[in-house]
TrEMBL record:
SUPFAM superfamilies: DNA breaking-rejoining enzymes (SSF56349). PANTHER family: INTA PROTEIN (PTHR30349:SF91), PHAGE INTEGRASE-RELATED (PTHR30349). The keyword Nucleotide-binding does not apply. This is Site-specific integrase.
Length: 422
């Protein structure tokens, strides 16, 4: 077993002295603060022997990793900033980090940022959740804020900045259960009929039949499709990233260009529409394609080749996307969403979210009797609990399963019952 890191002399130095008040004092170096400076704990006793024992106890708790900072602990805002900027970037994807940063700066720091970690209580967090609800925030948003706090404070406990995590005890508001409302079969057919005459019409056949996430569908390249085997590999996704300031001097956080938004900075960087790897291992998957969809994709490839000839040198051949914009570049998700809304109106179908196409595909798979594990693999789900949102489809499967059991065990009675109903 690998031993603990040997502490340097600066990290273990303790000083003792007798103060003007007649008491014995000591300052014990317990580690380093978030700003890199030594974190020295002050203790005082009336007798030197008592002080010596207290110093040894502190040094022992430090050396064995059992000490928790309780005096010079940082404020919540300071800790979350340190966590988001120095700990998380190497462990989570950009989109997750961006969401956490937004929630912290908008919903946490203004209200709770000045509170010291050691002063945080479950009731403090619950009162904040109630204030958010009273101000009009949804229960889902409050839950998201709660997850950020829970994760950030878990790290504080792991690094011994906090004895226990109050967010593990605090109770966020209950999120109302919303059952999925998929598009009907007739609505799907009307959408596909209207899509045939438009550009990238196969985009919507892929959405409704395979249930890909928006970014996944826009990230498909022709190399991902095996027409001989009728399969599609999901490996990448299109993602819009917020532009960062390129003018910030190292060691500072304030931009020097005079603009508030990174998109307006002359030296902006790391933003725009990008092609990234899929989020999880389950998201990287191979899907079997229905024969009609394979034929439609072949037709779409011929039409796209004609577009490339018209665009000429303006066409971006790399990375050879299946559903690009007019010049072969990655499609802006906002434009893709607008085209979906326009298609619904053209097809005479009720307004629906683009994500409802994914719900529709999952529902159709379940109703058709595809087993849940296979549905999870096709959809890229990582948790069995996700299927609970499709209770209407699962209920139909239960009824069908009961009917089949009846036919298997009581064939005569089932046949008679069918005759009576007829």
């Amino acid at each position: 077993m690998k031993g603990r890191r040997r502490l340097s002399a600066e990290e273990t130095t303790s000083s003792k002295y007798r103060g003007a008040d007649g008491r014995w004092h000591a300052r014990v170096t317990m580690g380093t603060r978030l700003d890199g400076q030594p974190d020295r704990k002050h203790i005082s006793r009336s007798a030197k022997g008592e002080l010596d024992r207290a110093v040894r106890a502190l040094e022992r708790s430090r050396d064995t990793g059992q000490y928790t900072w309780t005096e010079s602990d940082p404020a919540l805002g300071q800790w979350l900033e340190h966590w988001l900027e120095n700990v998380l970037p190497s462990t989570v994807r950009w989109k997750t980090l961006s969401t956490y940063r937004s929630q912290m700066r908008v919903h946490i720091v203004p209200a709770l940022g000045s509170i010291r970690l050691s002063s945080l209580r479950p009731e403090t967090l619950e009162q904040h959740y109630r204030r958010m609800l009273d101000a009009g925030s949804s229960a889902s948003l409050v839950h998201a804020v709660h997850r950020v706090l829970r994760s950030g404070l878990n790290e504080a406990v792991r690094r011994q900045r906090l004895a226990s995590n109050p967010a593990m005890i605090a109770r966020p508001p209950r999120v109302p259960f919303t059952e999925v409302e998929p598009l009907t079969r007739s609505e799907c057919q009307a959408i596909l009929q209207a899509a045939r005459i438009g550009r990238n019409g196969a985009r919507w056949s892929v959405a409704l039949s395979l249930g890909l996430r928006q970014g996944e569908a826009l990230g498909i390249t022709w190399a991902d499709i095996d027409f001989a085997k009728s399969t599609l590999q999901i490996r990448r996704a299109v993602q819009r990233r917020t532009w960062e300031h390129g003018c910030i001097v190292e060691g500072t956080r304030a931009p020097t260009c005079g603009h508030k938004r990174g998109a307006e900075c002359p030296g902006r960087r790391n933003g725009g529409i990008q092609l990234v790897e899929t989020k999880t291992r389950a998201s990287r998957r191979t899907i079997a394609l229905p024969a009609p969809l394979v034929d439609e994709l072949r037709t779409h490839r011929v039409r796209q080749a004609e577009e490339r000839l018209v665009a000429g040198e303006l066409w971006h051949a790399d990375p050879d996307l299946v559903f690009p914009d007019d010049f072969g570049r990655a499609m802006d998700p906002a434009r893709d969403w607008r085209e979906w809304k326009a298609l619904l109106k053209e097809a005479g179908v009720r307004d629906a979210r683009l994500h409802d196409a994914r719900h529709t595909a999952a529902t159709l798979l379940l109703i058709q009797g595809v087993d849940l594990r296979t549905v999870m693999a096709i959809m890229g789900w990582t948790e069995m609990g996700t299927a609970q949102r499709y209770s209407h489809a699962v209920d139909e499967l239960r009824v069908e399963a009961a009917r089949r059991r009846g036919e298997s065990l009581w064939p005569a009675q089932t046949s008679d019952a069918t005759s009576v109903r007829g």
